[in-house]
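Aim 2 progress update. The chain analyzed this quarter is reproduced below.
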Amino acid sequence: MKICAGKTTKNQIMRKCVALAMMAFAWGVTAKAAYAVDISESTKVGGTAYFDFTNIDQTTNGNGVTPSGTGIDVKRFYLTLDHVFDSMWTANLTTDFNYVAADSQTQVLVKKAYVQAKVSDAFIARAGAADMPWIPFVEGLYGYRFVENTVADRTKFGTSADWGMHAGGGTSDGMVTYAVSAVNGNGYKNPSRSKSVDFEGRIAYMPMKGVTLAAGLYNGKLGKVTQGVTSQHTAQRYDAVIAYVDPVVRFGVEYFRTTNWTQVLLAPTDSSTGSSTWLSYNITDKTSLFARYDNVSPSKDLNPNYKDKYYNLGLAYHVRANVDVALVYKHEDVTGGALSTASSGTIGSATAPMQGKYDEIGVWAQVKF
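Predicted structure tokens:
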């Protein structure tokens, strides 16, 4: 029986599926609630901080531009509060503080704020602002988030968290895992509503120890369609990753393709592709070498000459439990558009001939507690 099919439009089908999913969620949580083990409530406070002290040399068409210079950045400081009500119900609040020297301002945001119901290992539901299915998953495979965002996040073709309903889980042996989200589409920095709900999903398969194969899909309006605003297109992103992780080696290849990610409100259609390859090797228990290369075409149809190539090389040292430092060199070379690593932090869409270069060298660090 095709429960989500019939003589209906695509949007109506999506709404029917969402309604059925929410009904299933409510039934599952209600049915399981009676079996939650009453344990002592507890609250845990923790945090994660990313720091760097670096020198930047950035040019556009051969001329030096901001944020060139030497300085200290607190790229992220997550303060986390986890509360356990019982074996089923928990809650999380994670604030996001950052200071980037080029921006000359600090920001404090809510990164995550959700209530979680763990019905079983196969079904865990969250309501509120929580991790999205794709980017945090790939960050876990990559292992060097404190040095750089993963490729879709770095070039702003995705977000790591958003406001909505989230579910995930997997088989008892961990061989198959999944995650799905129905969200506002603006990202965690903007909880405002739009006319429609965006969807992101991921499924992962681990055929053998250390090997991960995963695919993902995003579909929606990115929170851009509000009262009085009409969309021209639906944004989509298709994701894939293959990775191998063991105590000595990390290796992975990530690929994404988008359609109309920057054209939701604009008539012309556009697409983009991006890939990222990374490798790290633990020389000793405390020292590792790592490298990464990204190749992105941000506007394949409207501005096919727009290319973004990025790489980094580094040596990391595990100082002690929860403290890591790395000596890193980064380089980004862009033609036909704006730098993604620039102070604006967004992919540009310039049509005039442009060429930008970005070089950064220094020390990056992460501290967890």
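The chain has two domains: 1-35, 38-368. Residues 1-8, 13-27, 29-34, 341-353 have pLDDT under 50 and may be disordered. These observations will guide the mutagenesis experiments scheduled for the next reporting period.
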